[in-house]
Every structure is written in structure tokens, then in C-alpha cells.
Amino acid sequence: MIFLDYSPFANIENEYFKSLNETSRYDKARFQNSIFDEVHMIESVDVVCTPDKKEWDYDTVFLWKCDNLEAGNVQLNGIPINQLLIRRRKKDEFTFENLKAIDFDPAVQFYEFKDRFIESYEDYVYGIQPMGGSVENPILGEVTIDEVESEFGSVWIVGKDTQYELRYDLEVGDYETVIPTGITETLGSQFPTISKNGHVKYRRGTVRCTIVSDKTIQGGSIHPKEEKKIRRAMMAFLTDNKPKFYKDGSGESMLISIVNAPTLSPINELKRLLYTTDIEFIEVGGIDMNSLATAGLIGGVAIDN
Questions:
Q1: Residues 128 and 48 both lie in one domain
Q2: Are 192 and 183 in contact (CB under 8 A)?
Q3: What distance in Å separates the CA atoms of residue 43 and residue 24, rounded to the nearest whole number?
Q4: CATH code, 139
Q5: What is the CATH number of the domain that holds 223?
Q6: Which of 1, 36, 190, 292 lies most in the core, judged by the most C-beta atoms within 10 Å?
């Protein structure tokens, strides 16, 4: 059953009020002689009447499942909602990871969150969960989920507050897996003894590209001041000795540290207004949320699943 709240002028038979105009605001609703097992109010009137029940969505203003006396968007089992918890998992996995807790404001309808620590060609499930109580004793509500398919190109090097896309004249070297191996040759034995450190295994690689500013790309001609600005900013970013998140358009990703100093090579044919850079990196950790938080790339959210 769907109730549409229309303007009182909609039923007046005259030449001036012939259209059904929905009301822009209502303060209360009253039902008599009725039985419900769920009441769901949304702001949109563009809905299809089906018997399927819908979970809390972005345009929901009231959802009462009729098994308690609490409903609406500011209470959680009688406890005020103070934060919205954003969670994520890969589609083929079962455990959510906590990404961020956003302070909840009843007057705000839309919240924006950008997740830069994702892989290309991957399906993710995101969840939004209302949270009340305290940090020590949080009260969590039901999770509203949505699926997102991730796909992007180029190579991205991501920091805590900054990221750079490596796009032009891009050359990605081999991803070499390093497993330290010892070879011992002993007297009286035809073959050597091989020993490996089973706990040490990481990748290393190189990438090369031409540094080009957005203004040069959009304008179609080289802007020397912008090129100088982005070149210096990018070199400061790559040499700050902080871990970075590396991802490429094929789906590879890793937590890296830049090793050796990135090189800058001027393109003399362009009067040294554009430069290429060569970057060498090694893998230094996992890409789960705990590892990224330990590396200082994100803020940790210590909430039990």
C-alpha cells in the first residue's frame, strides 16, 4: 500500500488547480483502524507499488518495523545516533572492514566519502551503519549495503591527503617477487643446499612517465609555471619518506615505499618544459585497513565487527 501526500488544492474543481502537487513538508501522520507490520516513508514519489520491503536508503525519512516503538532517522533503539560507520568488503569475501566514522547531523541529508584505496576490476560491497553510544561501548544499527564495480586506468600513487595519476608515456616495469634464498655448497656433495626465509616475501618494481599538469592537458599547450609547480610538488611527495598506496589499471596494488631518489629527466625537444620521472619502489606491507592505518594513510576505526 502506498500513501501519496498531496496538496489540499488538488481536489478542488476549478480552472486553477487541476494538477496534483505533492506537499513539500509534513509534520505528522495519523492512521486509524489499521494494522501494519512495517511503515516506510521516503521523500521521493517516483516509486513502484510492490510487496517487497525496502531497507533504509538515502531518501528514507522514517522506517518503522513495528517490533518496537522507535523509528525515524535520529534514534537507534532509544539511543541517539551520533555517527555513521562506513564499511567495505570485496564481493567474494564475508568480513567487512571499517573505513571511516562520519559525525551524524540530522539536518544533513547527503554525505560524501571517497575511497581511494581500491583495486581496478574489483567488485566491492559498501555498507552504511548508524552508530550510537560511546567509543568504548558502541551501539550499531542495521547495515544498508550497495555494490560498486571499480575500474580505472593508468597508475596511481596515493598518499594520505594527495594522489598523483601517472598517465603520459607510461612505462611499468616488471613486478619482481623477492624471496631471499641462500645457496650453500659443501665438500663431498654434488649439489648445493638451498635455504629460504619463509617469512620474507615482497614485490618490487619501477615505473616511468612524463609529468604533465592538468592545465596543460586541458589547454592543449604547455604552461611552464604549472609544470614547474606540479614537478616540485610531485618530487616533494615522492621523497617525503612516507609509505604510499600503489595501484594500476590492471588490478595490481600494494603498500609501497619509494627507494632511491626518483630521477627527473628534461625533454630537450620541448625546451625542457616537460620532464620524465623514473620511480623505483618496494612493497612494505599489506593493503588491509589495519595496515593502511598503521602506515598513516587512513585514520583507524576501532569498532568490532
A1: no
A2: yes
A3: 9
A4: 2.60.40.10
A5: 2.40.30.200
A6: 292
Cell 593502511 belongs to 292
CA 176: distance to chain centroid? Answer: 28
Residue 116 and residue 133 in one domain: yes
Please give the model's pTM, rounded to 2 decimal places.
0.71
Could you say which of 151, 181, 209 is where a domain stops? 151
> Which one-letter amino acid corresponds to residue 106?
P
Which residue range(s) make up the domain with 134?
Answer: 78-151
Four-CA torsion 220, 224, 229, 234, nearest 10 degrees: 70
Handedness of CA 53, 55, 57, 61 (dihedral sign): positive
Residue 293 CB neighbours (<10 A): 15
Length in residues, the chain? 305
Q: How far apart are CA 294 and CA 236, in angstroms?
A: 22
Separation of alpha carbons 118 and 91, rounded Å: 13
Q: In the chain, how many domains are there?
A: 3
Q: What residues are paired with 181 via a beta bridge?
A: 196
What pairing do the DSSP bridges indicate for beta strands 79-90 and 122-133? antiparallel
Dist CA 62 CA 41 (whole Å): 5
- Residue among 297, 304, 294 nearest 118 (CA): 297
| DSSP state letters, 238-257 | HTS---EEEEETTS-EEEEE
What does the pLDDT look like over 84-117, one tens digit per residue?
899 999 999 989 999 998 998 888 878 888 999 9
Q: Tens of pLDDT along 170-209? A: 999 999 998 888 888 888 888 888 877 778 889 999 999 9
Query: ∠38-40-45 over CA atoms, to 5°?
Result: 145
- Distances 206 to 138, 153, 171, 259 between C-alpha atoms, Å: 44, 17, 8, 10
